[in-house]
Amino acid sequence: MMNWKKVSEVIYEPISGEWGDEGNNVKIIRTTNFTNEGKLNLSEVVCRNVDLKKIEKKKLEFGDTIIEKSGGSPSQPVGRVVYFDITNEIFLCNNFTSVLRLKDKNFDSKYFFWFLFHNHQSKNTLKFQNKTTGIINLQLSRYINELDIKVRALATQQHIAQVLDQADALRQQNRQLLGYYDELLQSTFIELFGDPVKNEKGWEVKKLGEVVEKFKYGTNEKSDSIRYENTIPIIRIPNVLDNKVNFRDLKYSELSEKEMSEVELKNGDLLFVRSNGNPAYIGRCAVFFDEQKCGFASYLIRARLKKDTIILPQIIQFIISYETYRPIILKKATTTAGNYNINTESLKSLPIPIPPLPLQQHFAKIVEEIEAQKSLVQQSLAESEALFEGLLAEYFG
Q1: Number of folded domains in the chain?
Q2: Which of 105, 109, 166, 170 fits 63 for a cystine, CB–CB 3.0-4.6 Å?
């Protein structure tokens, strides 16, 4: 029979965070330094002045788990955890977090961390959170006093931690490889075409409206995550956040023949996000390349290029998505009741440099080859994610 202990039995009293005063005598870890993968991102760490006695008493030790006490969102429960694996620097955490440090020598620190990580991933922290003055808080005392952790032999814990570390490393490697391919595409684009805003290569510039045959808003028909007979996939905002349209988390609608003729997508169509509460989404675009019959939703605008096009849709997508081009998009956006919008007239006026068609075709071929490699990595990533999640559930579910 498996033994259990309350988390409060195996740790010291949680160590509260400090914020101190303006200054720079110690580095402070905040929830902005948390990643959702249980790791620290120390690219932007603040420094503060904290009393030396408090620093000595509260400094982080290798193997500590830092837990988020305040934060979260409607889609992400409070209670994220990160593992502290630094040995050569002194850090404190701030007052929106606490340090959980093992006192029971029969527990492995990484096993303990992965247990709490799974507890948050499985949304078990929801029942321990409350909301005051707009902030979501974790009832930490309740949490550690009510939460049970499985007691296993120390060698078994260490084995579990090692297996989870390896499974996590595999999925992180796949993610990094996808990032590498994206960076390769960006650097190749700049090498061939230059900055699309500066246009150092002196390409002819046309307005987007001059190369687009027709702009069209999407359907308002209600969609459902379950596919029924006579329904078709509807491309929505979450499906246009990559270079090309993705087909994750699709929803489906039944459209009349007339409406289908108006919103059906064809190979090479560009889709633009036209309305969203997040300005980072406005004007984002992706290219539709697929044989299946699809429509698109009302928060998107379809741009179909002229048949005698002098520019490929992939080139337009890279131009408009390039970081120096974003201010041009945002300048043309309007706001209404906290929502950001861009209309077809604004899209028509966007300046688009037109490189020589053979150079565009050369780049399109490179994109095709790299996207094929990315598809293989994405499949591997999906498998490694499933493996990792399955192991967490097996060990701690």
Answers
A1: 3
A2: 109
Confidence band (pLDDT; 50, 70, 90) for 1?
very low
Domain that holds residue 245: 204-354
Confidence at residue 137, expressed as pLDDT on a 0 to 100 scale: 93
**Token duo for residue 296:** 């698109």
Q: Are 144 and 6 in contact (CB under 8 A)?
A: yes
CA proximity to 282, closest of 342, 227, 210, 231: 342
Pair of tokens at residue 113: 């961390």
At CB < 8 A and 24+ separation, what contacts does 368-374 make?
370/181, 370/184, 370/185, 371/243, 371/244, 373/181, 374/178, 374/181
Nearest partner of 225 among 251, 248, 255, 246, judged by Cα: 251
Pairing of strands 295-296, 232-235: parallel
pLDDT on residue 244: 80
Work out the percent of the chain whose per-residue pLDDT is above 70: 99
Long-range contacts of 333-342 (CB under 8 A, 24+ apart): 333/279, 333/282, 333/283, 338/277, 339/275, 339/276, 339/277, 340/275, 340/276, 340/277, 340/278, 340/279, 340/281, 340/282, 341/274, 341/275, 341/282, 342/272, 342/274, 342/275, 342/282, 342/283
147 and 179 together in one domain? no
CATH number at residue 275: 3.90.220.20
Per-residue pLDDT of 260-280, as tens digits, reads: 999 999 999 999 999 999 999
